[in-house]
Design goal:
Layout: H1 2-20, H2 33-39, H3 41-65, H4 73-97, H5 105-129, H6 139-146, H7 152-166, H8 181-199
Helix pairs in contact: 1-3, 1-4, 3-4, 3-5, 4-5, 5-7
Length: about 200
Amino acid sequence: MTFADAVVAIALTLLVLPLSEFATDLEDDGTSVGDVLSDHRDDIGAFVLSFVVIWVLWSIHHRMMEYFDAYDGVIARLMLVWMFTIVVLPFVTQLLAGPEYDHGAVPLYDGVLLVSSLALAGQSWWGHRHPELLRQDSEEVRQWLAEPVSFVTPAILLVALVLATVQPAIGTWPLIALVLDDRLEHLWMRLRGHRHAAAS
């Protein structure tokens, strides 16, 4: 897990590096901080979006990996896929801030995030089916195992990808739903609980 956290930290560093270059614009006569921020609002918006997205994905990953006491080949490969998507995010973020925004950058960005969330859901699914990899003495783990695997985040990203492909003008706006990920997940769990109660 320490290695994965380091990968996230490096990705966040790479994410912010292009912004540091904007300071050189202040060397021009008559250029104010407000002018620089206005001229680079697309870059700043893309940075903020990716920072929040990485934070959401890392939070899910970090919380889930606290339940694991060991790993096998499947978990290792899924983690590798997840870390690859995190490393790629600074690159696709730059595409969002450039002229590629209107030429396929948004679906590519959403696709990378979808693969990332599916890798996380895959780790959760594998952990549910192989409890020997988990911390057996933890009540929190037992509660986690009693809950179904959540596919709320992949569902949000799949919808965002479809919308960005079918209606490009919508851009990255559907990704705002990721901020509500926890609330939507709790709502989904509650609905499942009501359905099971009604069925029994």
